[in-house]
Amino acid sequence: MFMGQFLSPLPLDVEIIPTRNLVFRLNAPLIYQSKRYGKFTVKKGFITDLASIPRFLPLSLQTGDLAPAAIIHDYLYAFQPVPRKTADLIFFEAALDCKVAMSKADLFYFFVRMFGWKAWNKNKKAKIENNL
């Protein structure tokens, strides 16, 4: 059932950055090899909010077993090396490779498909503005 693999050691080496919003800094590179889409390397120092969830939900949903897949997803949304739908599929694949329950992976995949467009478009606009 697992389609890809994390080539970096897990659990992750991340630290909380004290800001208004809960964000984390990756202290070691995170490398994910997707069986279908190739290899992706998230560099040390990457800032992520992990799984973007409403604040009233438990923090464990954000920092638990889904965290490595969420970091890959945030990286794919930030740099957009693949189309959005592909980024979401890689997230789903990576979640399963983290041994996340299928029901949880399905739920989070549904939410990124339904609501991820806002973050995707914001990052796309920022990329365009920074290249001018």
What does this structure look like?
- With 132 residues, this protein is an alpha+beta fold.
- The protein contains five helices and six strands, in the order ββββββααααα.
- It has helices spanning 60-63, 67-79, 84-97, 102-115, 117-131, and strands at 5-6, 14-17, 23-26, 30-34, 38-42, 47-48.
- The strands form two sheets. Strands 1-4-5 form a three-stranded antiparallel beta sheet, covered by helices on one side. A three-stranded antiparallel beta sheet has the order 2-3-6.
- Helix 2 runs antiparallel to helix 3 (84-97) and helix 3 (84-97) runs antiparallel to helix 4 (102-115).
- The longest helix has 15 residues, at 117-131.
- The radius of gyration is 14 Å and the shape is globular.
Please name the defining characteristics of this protein.
single chain; 132 residues; alpha+beta; 5 helices; 6 strands
Topology, pairings included?
Layout: E1 5-6, E2 14-17, E3 23-26, E4 30-34, E5 38-42, E6 47-48, H1 60-63, H2 67-79, H3 84-97, H4 102-115, H5 117-131
Antiparallel strand pairs: 1-4, 2-3, 3-6, 4-5
Helix pairs in contact: 2-3, 3-4
